[in-house]
Design brief:
Elements (H helix, E strand, L loop, with lengths): L1 H10 L17 E6 L3 H17 L7 E6 L5 H10 L5 E9 L5 H20 L3 E8 L2 H6 L1 E3 L2 E2 H20 L5
Parallel strand pairs: 1-2, 1-3, 3-4
Antiparallel strand pairs: 5-6
Helix pairs in contact: 2-6, 3-4
The structure holds riboflavin.
Length: 173
């Protein structure tokens, strides 16, 4: 089992979990997407929605919320995760390094906040935020040579929804 997993990881160019089976039946997903750098975030969002649809999640089970910037992702994610309506909340943003340290403050606080929301609500809260040096690096990760991190975040959301459905059946938990 372990050997198989390891050899599969060695063979693939990236270890990212993009191969997805069907999402659990009736599962619902929320996507929170920042408007800053929308040329890139729109590509992350389109790939995330497409990935959910490929996993047989109907549009009626996908809720998309736009927020001003990456810094606002946690507030919206917290509200959505606490609602009890979603199997996972996928958060998408692009923070590009500038002349000041804004990126470090945003990235660290958002990563920590999203992880806390996931742990405290029990609803997987996915980190689909590109933390890049320039626009080109962002484009490479939004449908370019490094794949699309929106797709990968959605695939991870589906996988976590499956994991939690499996755990819900364990009477010893
Ligand atoms: N939001 C992003 O999503 N990506 C960025 O690259 C980004 N750069 C910012 C740079 C500065 C100097 C500031 C002040 C804000 C930036 N924001 C960015 C917006 C931030 O996420 C948030 O929307 C605003 O700070 C309002 O809370």
């Amino acid at each position: 089992m372990h050997a198989l997993t390891n050899s599969a990881a060695r063979m693939s160019k990236s270890a990212a979990p993009t191969a997805v089976g069907p999402a659990p039946s009736g599962s619902c997903f929320a996507i929170v997407c920042a408007k800053w750098n929308s040329e890139i975030t729109d590509r992350l969002l389109a790939a995330a929605v497409e990935t959910l649809k490929r996993a047989e999640v109907g549009e009626d089970r996908i809720t998309v919320v736009r927020v001003p910037g990456t810094f606002e992702l946690p507030v919206a994610a917290s509200r959505l995760a606490s609602s009890g309506r979603f199997d996972a909340v996928i958060c998408l943003g692009v923070v590009i390094k500038g002349d000041t340290d804004h990126d470090r403050y945003i990235n660290a606080s958002v990563a920590h906040a999203l992880q806390t929301i996931g742990c405290e609500t029990g609803v997987p809260t996915l980190f689909g935020v590109l933390t890049v040096n320039d626009f080109e690096q962002a484009a490479e990760r939004a449908g370019g040579r490094h794949g699309n991190k929106g797709e990968e975040a959605a695939a991870a959301a589906i996988e976590m929804a499956q994991v939690l459905r499996t755990l819900a059946k364990k009477e010893w938990l």
